[in-house]
Amino acid sequence: MDRDTQDLHRFGYAQQLLRDMGGFANFAISFTVISILTGAVVLFGHGLNYGGPAVNGWGWPLVTLATLLVAASMAEIASAIPTAGAVYHWSALLGGPGWGWFTAWFNFIGQMATTAGIDYGIAQFVVDLMGWHGHGALLAVYAALLLSQGYLNHYGIRAVSLCNDVSVWYHIGLTLAIIAGFLFFVPLKPLSFAFTATHAPDQGGPYAWVFLVGLLQAQWTLTGYDASAHITEETLDPRRNAPWGMFLAVLVSGVFGWAMLLAMTLGIQDLPAAVAAPNPFLFVCETAFGAAWGKALTWAVLVAMWFCGLGSVTANARMVFAFARDGGLPGSKALARVSPTHRTPAVAVWVSVAVAFLVAVYSGAFGVIVSLSTIGLYVSYVLPVFLALRARRRGAWGPGAAGEFALGPWNLGRWGGLVNALAVAWVAFITVLFVAPPNQLTGTTFAGLTAALAVYYLAAVRGKFKGPQKLMTEEELLRAEAALEGAA
């Protein structure tokens, strides 16, 4: 038995999923789900409207630095607890089954809304480029995108891994091409334009508030990096590769994303017209390169977005599988089923796809999807970080702790407490920020979901859900693995 399987057995789980992803593949899935060519492009108009070019100049690096604190805090826990449950499993071990249950549900909400935001954004671009009209056409394209990603995640996990590897180089290559195109073929504004030019919508409030609302562009983009933690049971040497996958995905995305946004911002020929355009990114590209090249560039970006949606479905399904494996979801027995032929959580894949479709149908507003996914994910990210900080202050977590609370090889050492505290403070700030006007519908939706979860937990879950359990002996774990190997 290899060391990674032995490590998984220590937490009471069999090696059910196919473990053959290396460190680059682990990094690739988080980098792909972050996808600067999705968030920065889809919300390019949001940033221009709420804050203007200064949001790209100052806001993006600010959010990147704050997000690195969150990513580092999560990476430290992932190194100590390398299971597919990720944030759910961390909270359950550090705080108890109730903390784990709520963390899992917030992550579930955020993950599904993220997939919805990615593919709904692609669908909006496609109908604009094709000149199609009507909500039916939009939903048809959206459904087709989800089905293609679900099919590949069900039947071809090796193909998904290959797509993620290709996606990294595709993202980097296309980002560099966009930067070079604006630098060499478009008359650019002075660099100061990206840091001093501003814009605020009518009745948008003081500019400082408008600028903060505009940070949603960067914060939504820099989400989804928990994907590296969700695929730890498919990653070789996950105690090192998963933490580096998360942290480097945020760092590399932050650097390349900022460079791309600066080039695009300096290439804006007419700021008021760009802000007023139905699709500001498409408008800026067509104005800069001409209609034909602008559309070609947009189609190329849509390929990167599809890769992003594919990786998001992968992460979603693993989270659903891990939570169901511990009995945390209705229909857990089916959701925890692994396809013996393909070694993928097939039912969880299709449930993820279906729920993502319903999220978009319910909200009917792209802004709600984006804000809801950002808040849901970051609340689920910060709960285990808060619990780790609490345990660290009691001496139960951190340097010197033993057993399942011992730090892994990737850790923050004596800086852990400070980094954790700053991460918790940042997430608390953006959670309030992104439910305030003009995102009141997001606030209402999130509050309603939280209240419903609380009622459901108190009425039907409390005292019954035990969280992660070691349900099989070593011999039973080995037999389960042998059965899957034989079927495969």
Distance N terminus to C terminus?
A: 18 Å
Strand composition percent: under 5%
Which outline best applies? Answer: globular
List how many beta strands DSSP finds.
0
* Whole-number mean pLDDT: 87
Q: What is the SS-derived class? A: mainly alpha
Biggest sheet descriptor: none
Q: Count of DSSP helices? A: 23
Rg on CA atoms, Å? 22 Å
CATH homology group: Amino acid/polyamine transporter I
User: Strand-and-helix sequence, N→C?
Assistant: HHHHHHHHHHHHHHHHHHHHHHH
Based on the coordinates given, report the CATH architecture.
Up-down Bundle
CATH class: Mainly Alpha
What is the CATH topology? Answer: Amino acid/polyamine transporter I
Enumerate the spans where pLDDT stays under 50 for 5 or more consecutive residues.
none
Whole-number tally of structural domains: 1
Helix content: over 70%
